[in-house]
């Protein structure tokens, strides 16, 4: 029927912006037509009809790949308020989504990470802002599923934690009590393993940042600026794209397009391309380690020992902070493929100043390089690798570890909240070895290795090895902790005095680092 209509020269009437219609006659099988115009003259006009109370998805990771112009346009329109903002995090104070927090246009944040945004944390802990914290990989999958029309899915991420049981504070009262807690999740058993059910997320609007877009809305992202932009572009009822460059149809090669134009409704050219770098990190000379403060030398001792865990050909993920620094001490005779949750495989060393690229960061928002053979992908693909047990080892920081390998590392209720980030996903992946690096004791001298964790858990019985400034413990399933190694100058008796639970001692224990 379609071919018959084309041969008979039926007129096709297609609406253009501003309710203008254009009719193009079709002859034979050659089709020439103008599609619905998606180009908008400004960010202001592209967002002006966002109603108050909308759920808005914001692409980006930290400050990398954020739709700066669109966010600024919302911040300058006070009629847009009471938003539910869905984003991995909220930028930093006054930058990115931090602008909308300052203008009090966000009622609820759905995010995985608070990070270093002090205003975000202050509003949350003071009861001014509702915050729904979600594991980062679950958040990415909830958005991907929402865009694919899937209402819910099961995941092992969060089993045995407050993610499953509920009880995560969403809104605090002014007196510090909790007004709203997260609800318990439904669970199911598949092949003898327990999973939680997660409902998907879709938005009334999705605001994303692309490197290039054509006039049909086909999108290309650059380096690690893909991150949450790709899944969010598919999950909005109205997707608004801010592109650094808008090119004619046909200039983007079909096999290089990340998001097809069917998902995109409005396009603007970036008006603000500051591309601020959250954590400018450059390569340092290791020759000066001896002159560092004692606290940093202690951390380097832990980091160097952690680097001994890497094996040739291994795929590994390094957590924020101390674990990430272990990459500086990998044995040069071996090859390790470092994966970053924000969509990078093949992380290289920190860049020189001339190599710094704001579109190339790691999960800690630090500037990085990529080795030959490296690749970039979206956050949902990244966590597919993690949940699918493609990562051999994950090295994470810890606030507390129990004698059975429970880990707590994301919140001190009512006092400090960093957010779950990707840690809950990483420790839930079967077959991934989990190594925790941390100080043996807190600043007040209290032990951080305990019979039971006192803080909300990141994962249950998930830790395989603990590396501290005093020793190395292995977690032996069904038996508890085994003291494997001692740090230089530490004795078994000293370790016992600094540890909050019983442990056994390997017969060959010795000072090794």
Short description:
By secondary structure, this protein is of the alpha/beta class.
Task: Explain how this protein is built.
With 513 residues, the chain is an alpha/beta fold. It contains 13 helices and 30 strands. The termini are far apart. 18% of the residues lie in helices and 27% in strands. The strands form seven sheets. Strands 19-18-17-16-20-25-27-28-29-30 form a ten-stranded mixed β-sheet.
Furnish the topology, listing elements before pairings.
Elements lengths: L1 H6 L3 E6 L3 E6 L17 H5 L7 E4 L9 H8 L7 E4 L11 H5 L3 E6 L6 H8 L4 E4 L2 H12 L4 E4 L6 H4 L3 E4 L5 E4 L5 E4 L2 E7 L3 E12 L4 E2 L8 H6 L1 E12 L18 E4 L24 H14 L7 E4 L3 H4 L11 E4 L3 E4 L22 E7 L2 H9 L5 E5 L2 E3 L4 E2 L2 E2 L3 E2 L5 H6 L4 E5 L11 E2 L14 E3 L3 E6 L3 E7 L5 H7 L5 E2 L8
Parallel strand pairs: 3-4, 3-12, 4-5, 5-6, 12-14, 14-15, 16-17, 16-20, 20-25, 21-26, 25-27, 29-30
Antiparallel strand pairs: 1-2, 7-11, 8-9, 10-11, 12-13, 17-18, 18-19, 21-22, 23-24, 27-28, 28-29
Helix pairs in contact: 6-11
């Amino acid at each position: 029927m379609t071919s018959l209509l084309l041969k008979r020269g039926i007129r096709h009437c297609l609406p253009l912006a501003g309710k203008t219609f254009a009719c193009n006659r079709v002859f034979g099988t050659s089709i020439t037509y103008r599609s619905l115009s998606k180009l908008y003259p400004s960010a202001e006009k592209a967002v002006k009809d966002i109603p108050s109370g909308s759920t808005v998805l914001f692409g980006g990771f930290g400050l990398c790949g954020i739709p700066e112009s669109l966010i600024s346009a919302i911040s300058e329109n006070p009629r847009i308020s009471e938003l539910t903002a869905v984003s991995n995090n909220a930028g930093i104070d006054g930058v990115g989504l931090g602008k909308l927090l300052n203008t009090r246009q966000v009622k609820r944040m759905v995010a995985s990470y608070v990070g270093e945004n002090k205003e975000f944390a202050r509003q949350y802990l003071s009861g001014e802002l509702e915050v729904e914290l979600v594991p980062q990989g679950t958040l990415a999958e909830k958005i991907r599923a929402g865009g694919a029309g899937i209402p819910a899915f099961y995941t092992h991420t969060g089993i045995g934690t407050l993610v499953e049981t509920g009880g995560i504070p969403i809104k605090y009262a002014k007196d510090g009590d909790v007004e709203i807690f997260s609800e318990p999740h439904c669970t199911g058993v598949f092949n003898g393993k327990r999973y939680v059910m997660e409902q998907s997320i879709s938005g009334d609007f999705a605001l994303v940042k692309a490197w290039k877009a054509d006039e049909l809305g086909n999108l290309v992202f650059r380096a690690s600026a893909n991150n949450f932009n790709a899944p969010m572009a598919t999950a909005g009822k109205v997707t608004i794209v801010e592109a650094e460059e808008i090119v004619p149809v046909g200039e983007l090669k079909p096999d290089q397009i990340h998001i097809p134009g069917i998902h995109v409704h409005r396009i603007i050219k970036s008006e603000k391309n500051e591309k601020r770098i959250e954590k400018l990190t450059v390569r340092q000379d290791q020759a000066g380690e001896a002159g560092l403060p004692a606290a940093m030398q202690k951390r380097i001792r832990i980091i160097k020992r952690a680097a001994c865990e890497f094996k040739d050909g291994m795929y590994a993920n390094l957590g924020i902070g101390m674990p990430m620094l272990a990459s500086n001490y990998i044995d040069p005779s071996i090859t390790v493929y470092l994966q970053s949750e924000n969509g990078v495989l093949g992380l290289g060393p920190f860049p020189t100043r001339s190599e710094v690229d704001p579109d190339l960061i790691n999960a800690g928002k630090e500037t990085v390089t990529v080795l030959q053979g490296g690749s970039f992908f979206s956050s949902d693909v990244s966590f597919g690798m993690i949940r699918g047990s493609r990562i051999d080892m994950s090295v994470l920081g810890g606030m507390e570890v129990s004698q059975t390998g429970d880990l707590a590392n994301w919140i001190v209720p009512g006092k400090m909240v960093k957010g779950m980030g990707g840690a809950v996903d990483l420790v839930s992946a079967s077959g991934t070895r989990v190594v925790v690096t941390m100080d043996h004791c807190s600043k007040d001298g209290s032990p951080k290795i305990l019979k039971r964790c006192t803080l909300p858990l990141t994962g249950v019985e998930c830790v395989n090895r603990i590396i501290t400034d005093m020793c190395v413990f292995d977690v032996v399933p069904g038996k508890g902790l085994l003291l494997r190694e001692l740090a230089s100058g530490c004795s078994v008796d000293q370790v016992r005095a600094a540890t909050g639970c019983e442990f056994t001692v390997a017969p060959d224990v010795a000072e090794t680092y």
